[in-house]
Amino acid sequence: MASNVNPTVRRRRLGQELRRLRELKGMTAEEVAERLLVSQSKISRLENGRRSISQRDVRDLCGVYEVEDHRIVDSLMQMAKDSRQQGWWHAFGDIPYSVYIGLETDAASLRVYDPQVVPGLLQTPQYAEALIAGALPETAPTDVEKRVNVRLRRQERVRAAENPLRLWVVIDEAALRRRVGDKQLMIDQLEFLIERSQLPHFTVQVLPFSMGAHPGINGQYAILEFPDASDSSVVYIEGVTSDLYLEKANDVQKYSVMYEHLRAQALNVDQTREFITGIAKDYARGTAG
């Protein structure tokens, strides 16, 4: 049980261990909830790491599961205490997708498909500001600035000199031709995308309109993989009012296979750079977006 991890991952690992103990006891979440006089949904949220867990919760659950080894109980109690610490993103206040940021911060690799916009880890500050302001028109300027700063802080993982995040991105042509801000802003964004695509731990591919229907037609998603073998991969799907996290092996496998089809249908790395350069020239001529 590693201690040098962020609170989101601590909660996730603790939840996995509590689920393992419940299953060893042969109990359902409903049975545990009845014993503790709580809702079944609380037990589920504790086990999937989406809810903060107290040391009292751990103590009560260990009692139900009849865990007699005090070293295990003490270790789980410490994990619960550590999981209530705050990650760097809490300094920015209430961030709707803070769970995802915690996972991304600890991930070893990230595969992203986006049909509408340039993914956040590859956005320039100007593009991010114009995009957020346009997507959330009722958001105060100070909150837009906060979101931009969070996005830029997230990008530190992909610029890190040691152990950077391995990033593979498939972008639909629509994301490149959708004008966000003015013409020069888009040219700068596309040039930045080309520059980033040349880093050794980055792979960027474009899925052109000419490919027609494809497996990602239903929308954006990301697959996160972690350095610790005990941390299962996660599929993240962003929503308007809530996000979806898929962790079952079957779900992750389906999205991984779908991503492999997207990779195969997209332009290769060299073709992608040439394609993006062509769209940047279209913007310069006023014929794009």
Automatic annotation (TrEMBL):
PROSITE patterns: HTH_CROC1. SUPFAM superfamilies: lambda repressor-like DNA-binding domains (SSF47413). The lineage of its organism: Bacteria, Bacillati, Actinomycetota, Actinomycetes, Kitasatosporales. CDD domains: HTH_XRE. It holds the Pfam family HTH_31. It comes from Streptomyces mauvecolor. InterPro entries: Cro/C1-type_HTH, DUF5753, Lambda_DNA-bd_dom_sf. This is Helix-turn-helix transcriptional regulator. Residues 18-73 form the HTH cro/C1-type domain.
